[in-house]
């Protein structure tokens, strides 16, 4: 049996590739997740103000009240520097609940593809946040 002799430089290069590629992917996921999550938070506000109803007073109340309630709840429970921020799994569940509500509203107003894309991005962002911020 012949032993294959591997030069030390190749061995180091192989170890470098095995170790750094997952680290690079992990760092890339962290870098992309933060702006993506912030974009989802901003996009969440618009569909809350565009819910169809018959009465003009209800339209005004819903158009101003629902985004305001979402902003206040997000500021209390999900803002990065909030004093009442829950632990990570509960924070992700809270954000998924708000994003799901927005996705449902988008679906009800006839924007079905947008609703599915929005909920998919929110779900993916939450998963990336869970695995990179633990």
UniProtKB/TrEMBL annotation:
Designated name of the protein: YrdB family protein
UniProt organism field: Fibrella forsythiae
Transmembrane feature ranges: 57-76, 88-107, 113-132
Keywords: Membrane, Transmembrane, Transmembrane helix
Superkingdom of source: Bacteria
InterPro entries: DUF2568
